[in-house]
Specification:
binds zinc ion; 8 strands; binds adenine; TIM Barrel
Amino acid sequence: MKDFITGLPKAELHLHIEGSLEPELMFALAARNGVTIPFASVDAVRAAYAFANLQDFLDIYYAGASVLVEQVDFHDLAMAYFERAAADGVVHAEIMFDPQTHTDRGIAFGTVIEGLLSAMAEAEARFGMTSALIMSFLRHLSEEAAFETLVMAQPWLDRIAAVGLDSSELGHPPAKFARVFAAARATGLRLTAHAGEEGPPEYVTEALDVLGVDRIDHGNRALEDEALVARLAASGMTLTVCPLSNLKLCVVQDLADHPLGRMLAAGLRATVNSDDPAYFGGYVADNYRAVAKALGLSRGDIVQLARNSFTGSFLPEAAVARHLAAIDAYVAVA
Ligand code: ADE
Ligand code: ZN
């Protein structure tokens, strides 16, 4: 029997596809592509997943991505994620990919995106799951490099829903990417940015005012600024929150202290997501279950989080309405 959370229709809005690379697939792809990785076994990889902060994780995450070489590797990676997500009740996924992690080591942009797109089509055919792509710029690199990525993406712009901003937050404020985000907006792309994960509330304000983002990835530290919380609530801004990620990266010391409960109480449109599930110990339903247990969330809170995942998505209004009706139908009988 499916539990209530697993069966609840939900969207996942904050998922780095490279962060869904499980150690078993990492080893299989390393062997298939003749790539050397600095681990002796799957167990040794998992043992290395003890992070004190975001940068500790990113160093291992970028190293792991080196096994992704051929188009089929990106397809297999995404398919493995879609299978797990479908089992968790995800009916729509907006997945981030980091082209620069691959193009900087000589992999063609087309190799990456065509592999992802073929998996997205297969996920729709096999599971009825829709998905969208968010092309994320690495913020530790220059704005010029982000512009080069936007140029490379030109032939596929109609297949990309949004641009994002990820990687090392501290010292790389959103304003560094003001012009490239404006250019992306001008081409019709939606905008999102990681802000307030490790960085201060001012980075959240900057993402809103300077980048003009449609949603905020994480946003935890926005809670340190009362006026900002009021603004986020009044504008219905979506926050894509990642509880198990926050715990693994020491953004929170204990899930019982996680800000999600305070976000909901403040009327913020918070959602629950897995971020990098292969590294942080759980997929999206695990995140719902863990944070619900730690914070004592009610069934009503959990349903609200699932509703927020659709109202905060980049789906057209009619699709959002259809998914909300499916939630209502599920709740009525579950
Ligand atoms: N890239 C992958 N996961 C990330 C995270 N949680 N924060 C910033 N960049 C990331
Ligand atoms: Zn993230």
